Amino acid sequence: MIHLSTIPVEDKTVITPDWKELLSQSKLSTQDLLKLVRLEKHPLASESAEKLFELRVPKPYLDKIEKGKADDPLLLQILPQLAEHTNTAGFTNDPLEEEKYSPVKGVIHKYENRVLLIASSTCVINCRYCFRRNFPYSEHTQSKSDWQEALDYIRKNDSITEVILSGGDPLIHSNNYLFWLLGEIDQLTHVKRIRIHSRLIVSLPQRIDAEFIKALGEINKPIIIVMHCNHPNELGDELALATQQLSDLNVTLLNQSVLLRSINDQAEILKQLSEGLFEIGVLPYYLFILDKVTGTAHFEISISEAKKIHQALQASLPGYLVPRLTIEVPGQESKTSISHNTNQIINL
Prior knowledge:
The protein has 11 helices and 10 strands. It is 26% helix and 14% strand. It is of the alpha/beta class. The protein has one domain: TIM Barrel (Alpha-Beta Barrel). The protein has helices at residues 19-24, 30-36, 59-62, 75-78, 147-155, 175-186, 200-203, 210-216, 237-248, 267-279, 303-316; strands at residues 107-111, 114-118, 162-166, 193-198, 223-228, 252-258, 283-288, 324-327, 336-338, 345-347. Helix 10 (267-279) links the parallel strand 6 and strand 7.
């Protein structure tokens, strides 16, 4: 990891490797993955789980996995596992009941003044705990002309002050397509902010290329990018350079993590993550309780365990580096904060 203050001025350049080529190589089989991480076999692996959820991971993320280590925390986030075939009570295909909140194609409108656009149906990396692993993306896939209905929905609802691009991962699109959509949103006068949620920045930081930076600088509305980083080993020099370029454009950079068993379920790991994020100009935002999507119960941390971990984290960091311990409850008007001392929930 590097400190931005120590980078010589001449080295503060936009990352230039061809992200599209790296993207095209991200689809793997379980056997391919094991070979690349130098494991003959893995006790948890299941090739049949690929049929439940495709295996995708880009080379820059693979490079951060410790080779020959079966319990590497990055490997466990992407490895298809036999446990995914287990049906567990309380785990469903749509744990957040998002289909209830889709007034038009491509739109999820759960919260009064914020609307989410399903801007992409795919990611460069398929995290095995993904709450949208069973999402009906085919019903929300959009061409430029298709987006007019969604844009009209926002245009007619002046209570919407923030538009969130999610997916899949919105940054998987070409710059031409992505910035056409951002430009359309930028023209909506009552929208004050545009937020982009992306796992791709962490797993493929080469995506933040010179063309991206130039086009983003032409958007007038404030931009917030919420990264998804779960473990300090996912950080690195390339990500630091990417976030630096975004910070230079006054982009607000936040991070959200999911609390995952055997991956980041220790206060010390989360402390290292928060400290590392701050070094590259990113503030910790949310620490989520796992959404109960079918096939992910092996990642679950109970709320009581989560409280203890979060309380230890809070004792070891200043407040601005402590992400909010949060759960998403279907039907609530906002995210729900978890209190340490009581069973009380607090809407955010």
